[in-house]
Amino acid sequence: MQKKEWYFEYEIQKNRPGLLGDISSLLGMLSINIVTINGVDEGRRGLLILAKDHEQVLRLESILQTMDTIKVTKLREPKLRDRLAVRHGRYIQRDEDDKKTFRFVRNELGILVDFMAELFKKNGHKLIGIRGMPRVGKTESIVAASVCANKRWLFVSSTLLKQTIRNQLIEDEYHENNLFIIDGIVSTQRANERHWQLIREVMRVPAVKVVEHPDVFIQNTEYTMDDFDYIIELRNEFDEEIKYDAVEKNTLFSLSEFEGFDF
Predict the structure, then answer these.
(1) Domains and CATH numbers, the chain
(2) How confident is the model at residue 236 (pLDDT cuts 50, 70, 90)?
């Protein structure tokens, strides 16, 4: 029988030498293999483990509940956040009220790229929005994650290198392995009906679409926040407020520098 991965996380109640060794020995006695282990929060450790069946996991849980040195906080099939927590040694911040919103700061670009790459690898339609102030690293992170996910990225609208407002794509660009990037401010404030027809066509492609400034994007379109599968917020600092008047002003200034580019 093929072994199955589980995520096991515990909080240390009484820290003493040899605690991790005791847990490792217990897993070994139950013929459960450790795949990865790391600290995931202050006073917490997370492990990816391999067990041959659910009975093994139930037996492990039963024994762990008798130990006064640790408190089991999670023992479940691993979610994406669990895998990234073990890989990077920290949990991704998630909005308590809106479960599809995830928050990052600029010094967490590594885990952000890893997180987005995992989302990009999934097949089929995915609509992802990303909020953030100018020059915080939004577009660069999207492109880097595309490379990690082995996806070809296409700018439908952007100001990364020059004003990009696409009105059409060539046939092979309508490919489900491509990743389409849309700047919500550029599309809503500078584009024509041909551009919006292209966006509607792109939305029908069973591929990943990433929209920068999703709040602006939905203001003058038929799309709503309910259409988004994930919302990512990227800030310079945790307490930074994302102000769209400043974002729009900066984007319009960038656009004015490259007037005349339209393809």
Answers:
(1) 4-85 (3.30.70.260), 92-257 (3.40.50)
(2) very high
The two structure tokens encoding residue 36: 């990865």
Residue 13 near residue 69 (C-beta atoms within 8 A): yes
57 — pLDDT class (breaks 50, 70, 90): very high
Instruction: Give pLDDT tens digits for 183-219.
Output: 999 998 877 899 999 999 999 999 999 999 999 999 8
